[in-house]
Amino acid sequence: MSPLPQRDGIDPVHVRLPLDGGWETVREYLAERYGAAAGEGRIAAMLAAGEFLGPDGPITAGTPYRPGGHVWFHREPGPPEPVVPFAVEVLHRDERIVVADKPHFLATTPRGSHAVQTALARLRHDLGLPRLSPAHRLDRLTAGVVLFVADPALRGAYQGLFERREAVKEYEAIARHDPAVALPAVVRSRILKDRGRLDAYEAPGVPNAESRVELVEVRAGLGRYRLAPRTGRTHQLRVHMNGLGLPLLGDPLYPAVLPDPEVEDYRRPLQLLARSLEFTDPVSGGRLRFESTRQLAAWQDPAAWAG
């Protein structure tokens, strides 16, 4: 249990001290691990201010290193995060779970430069649920249904639904229509994602990703597609649609990485929506289904997305 409270809905960093190593003090370990990024002077200042805590209280410059020990601290706030001007809608809430309808551009959980502007942080704050946790995640640019767990004791039960592929996820996507692409189709391939590289890619080898793609209807040269992933690789649906020659509208990474893919254009979100989520509740045994109320912009106004 962390001795530090959350800050703006964000948990403190928790460090487990390595079981091996020649550090005499916790300060030496912290300086080696974080000094290059934060500066050793900053580490010393945080120690002096009591900002590093262990189970027994503040860690000082002379606190001896104990293998397997625990350290908690809050990351220093970076530049102010741009506010994502779209609300997180709550589709369902009970004592066990919260089902949210996440907007485009909002990360599911804190990661990298996105911390406060995340669905998790907002829901923890707005619903007064500091121990809320995600059962799974959606890409930041993807909108739609996300399941969160309100009771920490049940997190493993709900996460297991996704690990065992028992949760049925259905997505909706908009891309150009190409009558030469035979659909429906099941796409299987090997998808890899390298550290430091923004896009994922398909490579030779044993498939690790599977998606079913169906064309639902055609309008003004665009297709509305139903996508059903059987696996959950990074950017899987975007990669598979691109591989079919049907890259999703509004995608800054596929078929090619844009010069400034992190520059947000709120008028042209990625046309991918987690439309529904269905599963058997591991506690009640009842069958549950939740659907997003959002609509993909390109399907509402195809002319504005032409070209």
CATH architecture of the largest domain: 2-Layer Sandwich
**Mean pLDDT, as a whole number?**
90
Shape: globular
- Return the structural class: alpha+beta
Description:
This protein is α+β, with helices and mostly antiparallel strands. The chain has 2 domains: 13-73; 89-305, Pseudouridine synthase, CATH 3.30.2350. The chain is 17% helix and 28% strand. It is built from 6 helices and 15 strands. It has helices spanning 26-38, 40-48, 119-127, 155-163, 236-243, 297-300; strands spanning 13-16, 53-54, 57-58, 70-73, 89-93, 97-102, 133-134, 143-149, 168-176, 185-192, 201-203, 209-219, 222-229, 272-280, 287-291. Strands 5, 6, 7, 8, 9, 10, 11, 12, 13, 14 and 15 form an 11-stranded mixed beta sheet that branches. The chain has a two-stranded antiparallel sheet with strand order 1-4. It has a two-stranded antiparallel sheet with strand order 2-3. Helix 1 (26-38) crosses helix 2 (40-48). The longest helix has 13 residues, at 26-38. It is globular, with a radius of gyration of 22 Å. It starts with 12 loop residues before the first strand and ends in a 7-residue tail after the last helix. The relative contact order is 0.13. The mean pLDDT is 90.
